[in-house]
Every structure is written in C-alpha cells, then in structure tokens.
Write a structure and sequence with these properties.
Blueprint (H helix, E strand, L loop, with lengths): L6 E3 L7 E4 L6 H13 L4 E4 L6 H7 L4 E3 L8 H10 L3 E2 L3 E6 L2 E6 L4 H10 L4 E3 L7 E5 L2 E5 L10 E6 L4 E6 L3
Parallel strand pairs: 1-6, 2-3, 3-4, 4-5, 7-8, 8-10
Antiparallel strand pairs: 2-11, 6-7, 9-10, 11-12
Helix pairs in contact: 1-2
C-alpha cells in the first residue's frame, strides 16, 4: 500500500467512470465536459487535478465524484473544506480506489517521484492522471495508464469514460 486506505465502490457490474482533468477554473469547459460524460452514461466522476476553484466543484456536487489536486490548485485546504460542504470526496494529491475488483490509483501527474513509484509498483490495474494536457492510453505490464486530456489549454479538449470491468476506454472530444 502506498498511502492511505482504498476507497471501495461496491459493485459487481460494469461501471462507467467519467474521467476529466485540467479544468483550471474554466466553468464553461467543465460544464461542457460534464455534459458529454453524462450523455455518454458516466455513473461516477474522477477529476485528475488542476481543478482551479469552487465553481468547478459545484459541477460535481450531488454526483458520485472523487477529486485529486494538481500543481495549479493553490488553495487546496479551502477547496477541500468547500468540497466537503457540497459532498465532494477530495482526496488530496493521491487516491486509491477499488471498483469491481480493479485497483485504481489517481494522481495529477506532476510529481515525478510519485509517478515513477506508481509505474514501478505493479500494484494497480489503472493509473489515472492529467497534467500533460494531452490524452493518452498506454500499458506497462498489467497497468493501464490513462490521461483523459484537458479541458483547458489543449488543442483538442477531451474527457474519457472507463469501464474497468470490460477494460474499455472511450475518449470524447469536448467542443466549447
């Protein structure tokens, strides 16, 4: 175990996880990204950091959502308090989840030492991250490394949906 306890999502069926990152407090981008993910059937949402502010957390309020912080999330303590008030599971810089028997780790991707440790650890099925503002889907042994892209400062804005039971990833362009 790297840090902390796993968060378990009790489900024995396919779950469509909406993945987004790098909103940088751009409300129009977040709204558009959430619209795409909901239309595609996302049942849970994971934000891989660089949230930017409270109005982005408002878009996740009332949803089954987990957030990690990125290098541009400057008021982490304030956003964590706000997130708790609106029911968002803010995990800090790192989260470990288990969904339908799959081990998922989430981080922003800006901490090189942590990324190297996660890549070398062979403890997870999925590593979800952001930071590069470029969508990617790679494998290293059993580990599938997924970056949904970004909703800000990206030539093509994108989000993704992962079904960990079926090991299916779908990427979606977000037009703003």
């Amino acid at each position: 175990m790297l840090m902390g306890d796993f968060i378990f999502a009790d489900c024995d069926f396919s779950m469509r996880i909406g993945i987004l990152s790098d909103t940088h407090d751009r409300l129009d981008a977040m709204i558009a990204g959430m619209k795409v993910l909901k239309h595609a059937g996302a049942e849970m949402f994971i934000h891989c950091g660089d949230v930017g502010g409270e109005k982005i957390l408002d878009c996740l309020a009332g949803e089954n959502a987990i957030v990690v912080w990125g290098n541009c999330d400057f008021d982490r303590a304030g956003m964590a308090r706000y997130g708790a008030d609106v029911g968002i599971n803010c995990q800090g810089e790192f989260a470990e989840l288990e969904i339908a028997g799959k081990r998922i780790v989430v981080t922003h991707g800006d901490d090189g030492k942590l990324m190297r440790r996660l890549l070398a650890g062979n403890q997870h099925d999925y590593l979800l991250h952001g930071h590069t503002h470029m969508a990617s889907d790679d494998r290293l042994g059993r580990l599938r490394i997924i970056n949904p892209g970004a909703l800000y400062r990206a030539s093509v804005k994108s989000v993704a949906i992962l079904d960990p039971v079926e090991d299916v990833l779908q990427s979606y362009r977000v037009d703003i």
